[in-house]
Amino acid sequence: MNNEDQEPKYHNNNFVSVLFSLLIGSLAGAVTMLLLAPQSGKETRIQIQEKGIELRDLTTEMVEDAMTQMRLDRNKLTMSGRKKAQELIQQGQTLVVDQLDRVSDAAQAGKKAIQSS
Fold first, then answer.
1. Is residue 18, in this structure, part of any structural domain at all?
2. Sorting pLDDT into bands at 50, 70 and 90, what band is 1?
3. CA 44 to CA 47: how far, in whole Å?
């Protein structure tokens, strides 16, 4: 099982929730702006266009920040997993050496016992 390629599911859900909330908030703001606009239609359209560009830029920045954070989190998890794997390999090697020493000691004791009899 390769856990390095899997990203935590909560990041995806959080990311989708942020985008969905941003979209709903943008639509609500646009509708409110249209209903309460005290200016002409041409001025309102220009303002909507400017706000749309602002929101697009803000959304792009938020998406890029979220992706960067997800990559950092993934890299931290990967490095942590590799470090833990190295620790486990070292522990396994220590156990093997200890067991080989015990087997060697037992073989030497058996050899002495055979020679003594």
1. yes
2. very low
3. 5
